[in-house]
Amino acid sequence: MNDCPRFGVNYTPSRGWFHHWLDFDLDDVRRDLDAIAGLGLDHVRVFPLWPVFQPNRTLIRARAVDQLVALVDAAGERGLDVNVDGLQGHLSSFDFRPAWLSTWHRRNMFAEPDVVEAEADYLRTLAAALADRPNFIGMTIGNETNQFAGEPHPDPDRIEPEQADAWLARLLAACEQAAPAKSHLHSFYDAAWYLDDHPFTPAQAARRGFATAIHSWVFNGTAQTYGSNSVAVDHHAAYLIELSKAWSLDAHRPVWLQEVGAPAPHIPPGQAAEFALATIANALDCPDLYAVTWWCSHDVDRALADFPEVEYSLGLLANDGRVKPAGAAVARLAEQVRRDWAPPPPRRTALVLDLPEHPGKRSICAPGGAFFEAYMNQVAAGTRPAVVLAERASDAAHLDARGISEVRRSSG
């Protein structure tokens, strides 16, 4: 893939956060989108709240769908393309699952046929409403839906990897049926890559959907273990991108850095711009990067209670629309990349990962794990490492397709 990567942001409304769907005001949305477009970004990722849009298993609210279409149209008027996350799901430490899945109506969102069909109907409805919009990129099934399937969630819906795969296939097919010319995908948080025996697997992450979505957060132990000014912090997103490519069947599958942010205090506020520039520059050095989408557009209003402290200051824009230092840095970098883009050369040296898909000790890939540290040691020594699975380390055709000319073994 030689196209210049896209630059965008996850849209967090400045007034009311995602609760704005309960009191939707298109003028507020337009003002926010003006500020985002003013940064020179080209897309947003938006989040309908699932209980607001589908409060009953057989009721999808037409007015809410119309409001989503109005938001997408307003974005298009400002030159912004839109990806829509369907099943919200989980956002900034809060769960938003409809009442028909909880307490007295407790059912497994991944495994029970009538529930899965209701989810498919919901995604199909959203995708169909937007299918003719030229600025509609496509659907993401939901935001980090794998967090509902296991630890550390306090009340997970237990499934096996085969059930997880069937669920992904069914819901991606629903999106494709409703909007066949669009680019649909799913997103995981990093348990899929790092957590032993998690039911959603690296192969599913890297083989289902049009691209692999990476959500790179250094509060996952990276910053705590290695420090905010470390190789591991600056290269965490690039590491996840390269780790994902090891599991892909397509040597040049697009990878979307769909969430990345500078969480305080793990990244001190005064270092946020520097962190953004280093993280994105290292991600851009990975072949086949489709897009960088920062989390998030606007800071959470401090009038809203009970968010973890980290969530209040992740925006490129302050809650009143002022551009923050990280926002200015990302805007400058996006402009520079569009002007001077040249695809990165292949990563010629690959570190061998000996790990079965499931079950497997994925924790060797996590911060502090043997493979993670082997990779970061290679980076610190000046190597641009790729990652290759042990089963493909002698596959000349696979290595050649990826441009790999040397493989190195690691204790991981």
Automatic annotation (TrEMBL):
UniProt entry keywords in alphabetical sequence: Hydrolase
Gene Ontology molecular function, alphabetical: hydrolase activity
UniProt keyword annotation of Hydrolase present: yes
Protein name as annotated: Glycosyl hydrolase
Organism: Actinospica acidithermotolerans
